[in-house]
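Case study B.
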Amino acid sequence: MVANWWTNFVDIFYPPKCPGCKETVARHGAWCHRCHGKIAAVRSLTMLEHKLVALDSCRVVCEYTGSLKRIIHDMKFRQQQRYAIHLQWLIEQHINKEILVSIDYVIPVPLHAQRLKERGYNQTESIFKNWSVAVGVPWMPELLERVRHTIPQWELKSTARKNNIKGAFVVTHPEMVRNKDILLVDDIITTGITLDECAKVLKKAGAASVHALVVASGAR
Ligand SMILES: [Zn+2]
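Model:
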């Protein structure tokens, strides 16, 4: 009751708005019908086509385009963590809880400690943590660590990307990963090399399967 009253009070002063066009929407986090239609593109990427060897599947919900591109960029480089609820909303709209029944843990692609310190937050955690908890799958970021600072992948040609990311991740508790089905999450996929490298080390540690879920694909 108090929570309802407070929500109504806040909505009067900060009405929920679409992050694409600022039109008023039904609830905080939502996109308007038109902007949502422009970006939504739910699909599974083909592992073979992307030459990914360790990932078992990769599901993407949007196209990396228009206002979504701006929002993801601003979350990463302009301290706009507030956009996380709009990206979480996209995941909620398109990912059915049923596909998670066989998943033991959700793990975000980790940032290096130095980058985490600079940014102050891991944008992937801001997008997926509450969702993971709400759907009832344990959120386990501590199981995967980025131990080597890497050059941002987009600055490199595809041949250099593999070498750049090789050895960047370690599984901290292999015994917890053994025989588990894992869902890796990230904000964007381009070549998929980073996600595949994470899947590689998790499989090496004994994971039974590693799937990926990503907000947007900017894949070639
Ligand atoms: Zn809109």
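The chain has a mean pLDDT of 90. The remaining cases will be described in the next quarterly update.
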